[in-house]
Amino acid sequence: MEKFVITGGTPLKGVVNISGAKNAAIAIIPATLLVEDECILENIPDIKDVNIILDMLSCLGAVVERIDKNTVKINATNLHTYIVEKDLASKMRASYYLLGALCGRFKKASVALPGGCNFGIRPIDQHIKGFEALNCKIGIKSGSVEVDASLLSAGHIYFDKVSVGATINIMIAAAKAPGVTVLENAAREPHVVDVANFLNSMGANIKGAGTDTIKITGVEKLHGGTYGVIPDQIEAGTYMFAAAATRGDVTIKNVIPKHLDAITSKFVEMGVEVIEGDDEVRVIATKELKKINVKTLPYPGFPTDLQPPMVALLTTVSGTSIVTESVWDSRYQYVSELGKMGAQITVDGRVAVIEGGTPLLGAEVVATDLRAGAGMIIAGLCASGETHISEIKYIDRGYEDVEEKFGALGADIKRIDD
Ligand code: UD1
What we know:
The protein is α/β, with parallel strands linked by helices. The chain is 32% helix and 27% strand. It has helices at 22-31, 48-60, 86-89, 97-106, 125-133, 164-174, 190-201, 233-245, 261-270, 307-314, 335-340, 370-382, 393-398, 402-408; strands at 2-7, 13-17, 38-42, 63-68, 71-75, 83-84, 108-112, 137-141, 144-148, 156-158, 180-184, 205-207, 213-217, 225-228, 249-253, 273-276, 280-284, 293-295, 319-324, 344-348, 351-356, 364-366, 386-390, 412-417. A hairpin with a 3-residue loop joins β16 (273-276) and β17. The structure holds uridine-diphosphate-N-acetylglucosamine.
């Protein structure tokens, strides 16, 4: 079992390049099933979740080739099944995007119930509502979601909850559905826009992605082409938090600064300096930082996926900070791990109260999920002594070359086989 061993206490300094967005890549890859031609995808991160979804496409019959570390060629002309088996689908949450893609392609889909990080109940009722509005019959049979999309046609959907997954899934399913589909109360995350841009570049007609109303005029056919995925907002945010927490000075390159506004504005409130360039942000944390309160929200609010890195940072800031998690029911499992390092945090439901400024000490901790793992790395970088992080398989799901990137910023982080 692999572990990270971190010796903390060094302010991070230097330049880090951000990879392509995981959450865009793992939606765009399934969307290539709508295209009966060759798609070349650039800026695809070389991470576990991407490799799992590529395996799923191969199992369906698509020809998948990695041209280089970050470029993938997919030809889905000859698919031979619409069934995604349990052992593959249960490995990740995003397998539900295959429902939308297979419906658009085969008018039929059978995908075992999705797995993924466990932070509370993860319902798919909004996906189901969307498929029904597109005139599909959908049900759960022996642990698989089965969709009959033989009458697939446009529909009007008002989502009861802002859901990234449901917005993208229904957008993919509707891309080739006859008529005009309207999605209201849609998610506005950058990766929703990226999936729409990908589909449009292959011939789809999607307008309004990035607002809460998306209109999709179904087209008969999509053509192949080349598309580059956007930079990863959450990976960029993770390095911003690591820079601030270690009181460092880091330039984070290959980003879209606008996507980082929610973080930048909180940093400014705390006294962290952020200098924006065209495609980079420099984070300088030399002054004393101030406590803050923060609430996670759908985009353009503060991202829930950066809540653990934010909590790790706030443990280093004197005073009482309050974090409210409004997206997921149960996203504080990692707090007890921070407690092992001396952090003083109490959690009541969706609210975490952080009494910051007490020194963090190295300890044996567990990465309880992907972004919690990022929080543990940041805490380890700030702690005195050695921190051992186990279950790093979660971190490998979403961070490309993580120890190399932190290492290049001066962090003492090693991957060991325990
Ligand atoms: C995606 C991200 C995840 C991030 C989340 C919110 C991927 C692979 N994962 O997850 O990292 O934390 O967005 O930014 O992109 N909900 C329902 N019914 C549904 C669907 C969702 O009630 O049918 C609820 C969820 O329980 C949650 C909220 O809506 O409380 C947001 O979920 P959603 O945006 O769908 O998250 P994911 O797309 O699964």
